[in-house]
Structures are given as structure tokens and as C-alpha cells.
Amino acid sequence: MNRWIRWQGLVAFLGVTISICLIWALFVDPVIKRIIEKTGTKIVGARVELEKADLSLFPIGLTLFGLQVTDPDEPMKNAVEIGRIAGTVDSLQLLRRKVIVNEMSVEGVRLGTQRVRSGAISKKTEKGGIEKKKDSIPGLSMMKMPDIQDILGKENLQTVQLVQSIRTDIEGGKELWTKNIAGLPGKEKIDGYRKRIEVLKGAKGSSKNIGDIGGILGSAGEAQTLYKDIQADLELLQKSQKGLNVTLANFKDQIAKIEKAPQEDVRRLSEKYGFSAHGLANMSRFFIEPGITAWVDRGLYWKARLEPLVERAGEKKGNAEVIKPLRAKGSDVRFKEKEPLPDFLIRVAKVSVQLPMGDFSGVVKNITPDQNILGQPLLFAFSGEKLSGVRSVRLDGAINRVSPGSPEDSINLRLEGYKVQTKSISQDSSLPLTLEKGDADLELKAALSKGFIDATVAVQLKGVRFSAGGADAQSGFGKAISSALSGVSTVGVKARITGPTDNYQMQISSNLDDILKDAVGSIIKDQVAQFENKLRAAISDKVSGPLQEAKGSLGGFEGLGGEVESRISQLTGIQGGGVQKQSQLGGFQLPFKLPVR
Amino acid sequence: MITIIAKILKALNSETDPAQIGLAVSFSLIAGLTPTLSLHNLVVLFLVLILRVNISIFIVGTGIFSGLSYLLDPVFHRIGLGLLTAGPLEGLWTSFYNLPLLRIERFNNSIVMGSLLFSLALFVPAFIFSMFIVRKYREHILDRVRKTRIMQMIMASRIYSAYQAVSGWGGNI
């Protein structure tokens, strides 16, 4: 027995085990801190930092201090900063490798705080995200008339291309028809027919004897052959004449179309250079859409980032489900449990958010990546009353992954008595517009189902005051805009957002539309008309020369037509005057001329 | 470090039972190839300490097999996933899954399952093979190794001094 058993090893085992426990107790907090930072950074795509983690054993609980989550779009800002997160873990469930937190408190949540150092982890986040194109106020760009000659120098005009094309076609057509006509029966052949006619006439004169029947029949046969030859050539020439006329008509038709083509160029260039009344009917869109788009995009971005926290992609294999753990290697296979519970669950998290306007508190329920096991969706509800600058605010919603194949999310926000102060609504440097003040009531209802968004936003602003600055505010268009807005005291906006999350559509309507359209509509129309007239005249000047040349080159076709016509006349003359279809009786002239086809 | 190297040399060259060395290699196979923070490794540690297993060989073996496990993880994942999702075994795994002790063991992770079964399958062959190698080494190679220039240099080095000091302990550690 003692040959194989080392009893002092028992003491060593106890010593090693206790040492491991002590080392674990000493180093577990930094290890947890590191795990949270590493996993959080991976999920968010920007640095997640934790000041301190504290794991307590009796009862088992975890407290986190100073959690900072960098905004990936603005690495010098935190998307969220949390002062303290504390919760106790169900010890019995921990034996089943299930982290169940019955109640967690999240205190000191602040949004958009400044960071001491950049939280970027890649070049993309360092740059602060993708730069979005900034639009100009519709109509404002029209106030500066661009140099028409400069535009014509830069742009490829469709009219010019068509003129060049028709000239090439006409030259090609002329060449082709010249060759074709050269191959048609010409002077030599016509002279040949004349000689044959003379020969026939001679033969007819020498066969006066009524008994020379063989000679008469022979002449008749030759006359018939000659007639057929002439007829065949005549038909060939007439066919060619017809084809030539069709070609000529086509070219004339194309030239007529080209003469109208500048209008199409004018329309295209007017739109390209912003000289169009299109868009005036919905001018408020310019001021409102960027804000809503930014909100929607930001919401969708964070939803996508936090998706791993509310849903784990699993693959069913029989009654088992294979899932990829967030941290560990390999895959975890889940089997049917007697008492099904998610691997991770925070039943209730009480959250206190510190906003500049005051404290805003609420609860988040059922935080788990395994909603299908729990059978309940994540729910959240926040509210705040009598805050600084806001009478009341309520936010609630659900993230439903109970049926992973049919994800459904919803969010409702109601904001009452929100005092807007100095909110920029146009970044256009030449006409910056600011909403100086106003009381806003906002209601947002959004639903996201299977990648499709359907949201409505209704905003009612009372007691508003706008101000306009910049170089253009004192003249023409800018003056009209600022003057129109100065008379506005109430603004109502309704927006509907629908479609797939990666390509949603937005419909916006506002009472500002009519106000702005009335104010600047006539100015814009005058500018558009001026621009179009100048452009039309310039295009006509540019193409008139080449177009005249193209018309002139059609004259060549008329010469070819004349040549064919002359040959047809000659052959018709020969046929009508000298050759009559011979009867089988010979020497007897027919009492009528054969019709010329 | 020098002491450990000296102990390895002592383990190979002394009268230490080849079975004890073989057992150390087999246990290090489990501890090295499977994820370190697993419940079964606590059992392995207990057995290594309570049984007269050569600890130096166990430590070195664990290090070597740990390195190897990084390369073999994809293989372990495939083996583990195949076993865990095999239809006929579903009942067995389901009953295991409902036992707290086995949940702590994380048997349902593909790499834990794959690496554990792989190392258990190689436990006996590794034991027999290691004993065979140690015996052959002592019979045929040990004398020639002692006469090599390298060995002569080693015998003149600090390592050998340490080795002599260790061999003075005389135990079968």
C-alpha cells in the first residue's frame, strides 16, 4: 500500500488547494475587472474601462465601480459612465453554473461624459466614424448663379454627342449609298439597251416577207428578253431609290429630334446644379430629417452592438442546442433541464440616470441572453417628473427575443414641456439657423420587427423663436427665410419612418413647409427660369454650327437621289418609246403600251 | 530551474520506478491537454499528490501538453461536439446536465469534453509507452549518454552539482 500511497501528499493537496483559494481570493478582483473590460470592449467596439471590481463571497455578490463605455463615434466621450453597479448572486444556482441576480442596482449613470484619454481601439473609431455629407438648405445654392460657360466646359452635353453621332452616320450613309449606286445599272448598260433596240428594229425591217415566219418569231423572242432585262434593272433602281429615300427621311427625322435635345440637357443640368423647384414643397425636411436620422441611426447602432447581451445565436441539434459562449472557447451544448433557467439572468436592475436636467430613474427587467428559456422579454421603464427644463419624461419599451426567429422590439418616449434652448437646425455656413427657444412636446413610438422599422414621431413646439445668421441672411433668399421664420410661433412636425433598418424611408410633414414655400417659392422659380434660359441659349450656340453642317451634308444624299432618278427616267423612256412587249404574232404592234412599274 | 532539471535527470537516471514516471506522464496528459480551470484537474492534482507519482515529470509534462493543446483545440472541439450532439447519447448527457457537479465540470463544452475524452483514451497507452521508454533508456542509452562529451560537460556543471545534492535526498519524489 505504502509503495503507491504518499500520505504526506494529502497534506500537500490541502496546502496547494488552500494556496489556490488564497491566490484566487487575492487576484479574482483584477481578473474580473480584466474580463469585463475585454469582453465589453469586444462588444462595443471601443474601450470599456472599469475602475474597480469587488467580489464578495458571503453572500456571493459583485460590485463594480467606475464603469466607462467609450462612444465608438466620439472616442473622447463616454457613451455611458456608471458610478456603481452592485448585485448579489443566487449561490445555489451558481452550483448549476447559472448566474442569477435577483436584484441589481445601477447608480450614477451619466451619458456623454468627457474622457481623459481616447477610448478608440481602431482607426475607424479614432476618426470618429464615417463622415456624413452635409446638405445645403434647399434653394440657397440657387442664389449664386454659376458660370454657364464653365458648366458647358465641364459637362458632356447629350446634344453635342447626338450631333457628332448624326454627322458620322450621314457620312457613313453617303459612302454606302455611293457604293450601292455605283453597282446599279448605269450609262453603259442603258446604252447597251439602246443598241439592242436598234438591232431589233433593223431585223424587223428586213423581215417584210410574210413567209419568213422564222425571222419574225426570232425577233419577237429577242424583244421579249430585252424587255424583261430592262424591267429587271428598272425594278432594281426603283427599289434602291425607295431605300435611299427612307434613309434620307430617317436622317431628317433625327436632325429634327436633335434640334429639340437641348431641352433635355437643360433639365438634367438644372437638376444637377440644384436649379430645380423640386424639394421646395417639403423644405422643413432639410431642418428636421438630419436630427431624426441621427437619432434613429444611433439607436440602431447601439441595438446592434448590445444584441449579444439579449440574444445568443444557437443551433438546434435534436433536443440539444449548440451555442457559442461569449468568452470561453469551443461551443456549449445545452440540454433539456428539469427546471429551465437562463445561464445568466438579472431579474431586476434599478437604474438611476443623472442627466443635466436632473435624475431620471427606472427599472430594467429580465436581462438575459436566453429569453427563449425564461419565456419573458426584456422590459424597461424610466420616468422623471419636474426636471430642470422638462416637465415630464417617460420612456418604456421591450426587447423581445422569446421566439428568436421573430425578434420584436418596441420603444415609446413621451416628453412634455421640454424647453429647447439655442438648438442649431441648419449647419449651412452661409445661412446658419438656430431655434433660440421653444417648448416642445414629443411623442415617439417605434417598433422593430424582423429587421423592419416602423416608427412615428410627433413634435409640437410652442412659443418658438428662430434666428438666422451668416452672409446670406440679409439678402434675397436668406432674408425671405429668416423673415418667414421670425413670424412662426408654433411648429408641428410629424415623421414616419418605415422600411428595413439599413435602408429606411422617412416621411416628414410640418406646417413649416407651407410657410417656407410661400416665402421663397417665387424667388426660386425666377432663379430657375433665369438659369434654364441662359443654359438653353448657351447650348444652342454650341451646337448650332455642327447641326447646320449635318443638315448641309444631307444635300449629298439629294445628289445621289437625282442620279438614281435620272437612270430610272432613261430606262422608262427606252421601255415606253422603243420596246413593246411582242405578241406571239410578231410584226404586229400591240395597240397599247405596257405599263411601267 | 536548475533544481527541476536536476530532478528530471534524477528521475530518469535513478532507481525511480518506471511506472511512477509513466503515471506522471499520463496525468500530465490530462492536466495539460484539458482546460486548466476544470474540476477534473483538481482530482488529477489530488491523485498526483496522494499517489507516488513523479512530480517533476508531471510538471514538465503538463507544460509541454498545455502548449500542444493550443494546436489541438480544433480537433478537441470536433470530437466534443460530435459526442455531445450524438443522438444515442442525448439521454446520458441530459441526465449529466441536470447534475450540479457535472455542470461545474462544464462537460457540455465541446473543448472540455473533446480534450478530456482524448486524454483519457491516451491515458493507458501513454502509461505503458512511457514505462517502456524509461526501461529502454536505462538499459541501452544511459551508459552511452554518460560517456558523451555533452554529458561530461553537464557533469562538470552546476546542474550536476544540484543533481548530486538532490540525489542525496534518496527519495522517490
Could you please describe the fold and organization of this structure?
The complex is a heterodimer of chains A (597) and B (173). With 597 residues, chain A is of the alpha+beta class. Helix content of chain A is 44%, strand content 30%. Among the domains of chain A are: 8-121, no CATH class; 149-260 and 554-577. Chain A has helices spanning 8-44, 91-94, 123-127, 148-154, 158-182, 187-206, 213-260, 262-272, 284-310, 371-374, 476-486, 511-553, 555-577, and strands spanning 48-57, 60-71, 74-89, 99-114, 314-317, 320-323, 332-334, 344-355, 358-367, 378-387, 390-400, 408-426, 433-449, 452-468, 490-500, 505-510. The relative contact order of chain A is 0.11. By secondary structure, chain B is mainly α. Chain B has helices at residues 2-13, 18-33, 39-50, 55-84, 90-97, 100-105, 110-121, 123-147, 149-155, 158-167. In chain B, helix 2 runs antiparallel to helix 7 and helix 4 packs across helix 7. The radius of gyration of chain B is 19 Å and the shape is elongated. The chains are: A alpha+beta (597), B mainly alpha (173). The interface between A and B is medium-sized, with 31 and 32 residues.
How many strand segments of chain B? 0
SS class of chain B: mainly alpha
Most extensive chain interface and residues per partner? A-B, 31 and 32 residues
The amount of beta strand of chain A, in percent, is: 25-35%
- Alpha-carbon distance between the termini of chain A? 131 Å
Q: What portion of residues of chain B is helical?
A: over 70%
Main sheet makeup of chain B: none
Number of helices of chain B: 10
Number of DSSP helices of chain A? 13
Q: Kindly state the number of beta strands of chain A.
A: 16
Q: How are the strands of the biggest sheet of chain A laid out side by side?
A: 1-2-3-4-8-9-10-11-12-13-14-15-16
Largest sheet of chain A: 13 strands, mixed
What value does the average pLDDT of chain B take?
83
Give the overall shape of chain B: elongated
Number of structurally distinct domains of chain B? 1
Derived structural class of chain A = alpha+beta
Oligomer: heterodimer
State the end-to-end CA separation of chain B.
Answer: 16 Å
